[in-house]
Amino acid sequence: MPLTMLRIGEPNNIKNIVGNDSAKCHLEHLGFVTGETVTVVAELAGNLIVNVKDARIALSKSMANRIMV
Question: What UniProt keywords apply to this chain's record, in alphabetical order (predicted)?
């Protein structure tokens, strides 16, 4: 399921990242790699603030939908 489906505060592991190569590369540079634990901190209008590798990162809804957990 995509990252946007997670509840706030619920940790889960990243299973896959879908999309074109540049989007995958961008997300990997931010720390979104397969097997990493990710937690949704907040949601506002579909956009997410997530915690990954001890960093808080804001993601648009379209980018968050590319991350499968």
Answer: Iron
Q: What is the rounded CA–CA span in Å between residue 45 and residue 24?
A: 23
Q: What is the pLDDT of residues 17-53, one digit of tens each?
A: 998 999 999 999 999 999 999 999 999 998 999 999 9
pTM score, whole prediction: 0.89
Angle at CA of residue 13, ends 10 and 15, nearest 5°: 135
> Which CATH number covers residue 11?
2.30.30.90
- Domain range spanning residue 49? 3-68
Helix (H, G, I), strand (E, B) or coil at 7: coil
Count: domains in the chain: 1
Beta-carbon contacts of 47 under 8 Å, excluding residues fewer than 6 positions away, are 58, 59, 60, 61, 64
